[in-house]
Specification:
alpha+beta; cytoplasm; EC 5.2.1.8; four-stranded antiparallel beta sheet; PPIase_PpiC_CS; peptidyl-prolyl cis-trans isomerase activity
């Protein structure tokens, strides 16, 4: 059976901003708030939620991170052709 995950992300175009957002998350600022304000992905309307997706669906660097990082802990930045992602995995099956 395919592995699945549910994750949130914030997509920005530079690493400096990604690191600043990661620091804010570590200080307790809401992922939802930062995603809605800063993310360039349409998922920002849902607080950065990508919903549930199968392993292999996302671009390789993003996919690798989602299926290996600790759960519920903001992680990043992860660079892809889209920009820099801060990722928070809610669960994996």
């Amino acid at each position: 059976m395919a592995k699945t995950a549910c994750a949130l992300h914030i997509l920005v175009d530079n690493e400096t901003l990604a690191n600043e957002l990661l620091a804010k998350l570590k200080r307790g600022v809401s992922f939802d708030t930062l995603a809605r304000k800063y993310s360039s992905c349409p998922s920002k309307r849902n607080g950065g939620s990508l919903g549930e997706f199968n392993k292999g669906t996302m671009v390789p660097a993003f996919d690798k991170a989602v299926f290996s990082i600790p759960l519920l802990k903001p992680y990043g930045p992860v660079k892809t052709q889209f920009g820099y992602h801060i990722i928070k995995v809610l669960y994996r099956n």
